[in-house]
Amino acid sequence: MDENNSTLLNLRTIEPSDFKQLAALEDLVFPDVGGAWPKSTIQGLVKHFPDGQICIEDKGKIIAAALTIKVSYNRYSLNHTYLDIVDANNVACHNPDGDALYGLDVFVHPDYRGLRLGRRLYEARKELCRANNLKAILAGGRIPGYHKYADEMHVSEYIAKVKRREIHDPILSFQLSNDFDVKRLMNRYLPEDAKSKGYATLLEWDNIFYEEDISIHQTEKTLIRLGIVQWHMRRVVSVDDLMNQAEFFVSSLSKYQSDFALFPEFFNAPLMGLARDKDSVEAIRYLSQFTEEIRHRFSQLAVTYNINIIAGSMPYLKGDKLYNVSYLLHRDGDIDEQYKIHITPHEVRDWVIDGGDKVKVFETDAGRIGILICYDVEFPELGRLLADQGVQILFVPFWTDTKNGYLRVRICGQARAIENECYVALGGSVGNLPRVDNVDIQYAQSAVFSPSDVYFPHDAIITEANANTEMIIFADVDLSKLKLLHNEGSVTNLKHRRLDLYKMKTKKRNKKKH
């Protein structure tokens, strides 16, 4: 490379007229395995799959290139040889109807190594794979460093050491650093490859966005709009009065095409003001008498306004036990419920509420969601249970009276978003109810949190309300970004859990005598 002139790189597809430059570059890079391919091979690739043949040039000089074909995944994800890819007449076995890419070659001029040009070519291949909705990129990877160790270790041990970075292999180390996985070892892949002793690794990069052929009606929605109601507790004179307030917010959120409307925990508490002569235990049971009617009316609103509603939470009397229950009212008329699991000392002492015993993820037309009511979000085990069920959005209806109580919910909600790689939406209430015991003051700042990585806002806060002000907030969340995070994030918390260690510790604790 001419150090007196600055490098000017350009990535483009290869043209038939580029053969002379490509041949010279291949001869330079691959002298040990035959050098350049015949002109007919390159011309055939450019003719039959032009988008798969890419190069990088510096001021018109080709300095790096990648050659690619399409193949059947089911065939070439199994054991094969180089002759299955390029036949004896040097014709590449390109399948125009293939559902995977196969990397034939990537080569970079020695003078330009260190500029990460190979990574650029690999990224271009990945974009091609995504753009064409193909399953994966496959490649038969040479291991040219193996001949140095062949007398002292088996090839499988060599590959394991390269994976652990105890040994550097010029090709395999590079491919592993570009998110490829070794799927199998192939013997006699290229017998004349003396440095690799004829071996090759079958490498695979999966396209996490690949979708089977499905109708447009079956396509999973990925961009979801959340609407959160920061609800003002005010005196009401009837259920109609309460529901008129609720319908105003549902209607407003629907006008903005929200997929969800989240209400706070015990949003219907103002109805307890209709029973001022009752003590706290009697008052909360009095409130539970309205739950079925409110649930039914919210379900009608969900269908009428075409929006999924998380109706905060309400007290529900089942037999002689009282529970704190959140209802998910689907816009198709279905109804799901989530019982609060962990009951606060206040709920036990003043209202005699019992806890539920299971959490589950609900399938909706706008993603897989979970609901943790207020105190429940402060227990990481529940979030993990939902993460194991594939939760994408976690809704947290809450009621807190003080800022420190609110901060417990907020900080734990942010932690659940990070550790479970999901979105978390908090919705709380503001205002005062001076004539209602135990729900007399409110503090809230509703918000929507994301995981913390490059795909999301720098502070992992998508939106938040003004503290202690009645309002609605919106947040657009992209579920496809969660897929990227799960597979290619800077850190992947779910993948890196040490379940062997956690199970071991749990076992020891259970054996301890008390």
Strand and helix layout:
Blueprint lengths: L8 E5 L5 H11 L9 H10 L5 E5 L2 E11 L1 H4 L23 E9 L8 H15 L4 E7 L12 H9 L8 H6 L3 E6 L13 E7 L16 E11 L5 H17 L4 E3 L17 H9 L2 H14 L3 E3 L3 E5 L2 E9 L5 E5 L5 H7 L1 E2 L7 E3 L2 E5 L8 H9 L4 E5 L5 H18 L2 E5 L1 E3 L15 E3 L11 E4 L6 E8 H10 L10 H13 L3
What would the keywords be for this entry?
single chain; 514 residues; alpha/beta; Aminopeptidase; Nitrilase/N-carbamoyl-D-aminoacid amidohydrolase; 2 domains; 9-stranded mixed beta sheet; 7-stranded mixed beta sheet; 14 helices; 22 strands; 24% strand; Hydrolase; GNAT_dom; hydrolase; hydrolase activity
Task: Count every helix, treating DSSP H or I runs of 4 or more residues as helices.
Answer: 14
What's the architecture of the largest domain, going by CATH? 4-Layer Sandwich
Shape: elongated
Count of distinct structural domains: 2
The largest sheet, given as strand count, sense and whether it forms a barrel, is: 9 strands, mixed
Strand content: 15-25%
What's the β-strand tally? 22
Q: How many whole angstroms does the radius of gyration measure? A: 30 Å
Structural class: alpha/beta
Distance between the termini: 73 Å
Top CATH class of the largest domain: Alpha Beta
Mean pLDDT: 91
Relative helix content: 25-40%
**Low-confidence spans: pLDDT under 50, at least 5 residues?**
506-514
CATH superfamily of the largest domain: Carbon-nitrogen hydrolase
- CATH names the topology of the largest domain as Nitrilase/N-carbamoyl-D-aminoacid amidohydrolase
Pfam families: Acetyltransf_1, CN_hydrolase
Keywords: Hydrolase
Domain CN hydrolase: 224-479
GO molecular function: acyltransferase activity, transferring groups other than amino-acyl groups; hydrolase activity
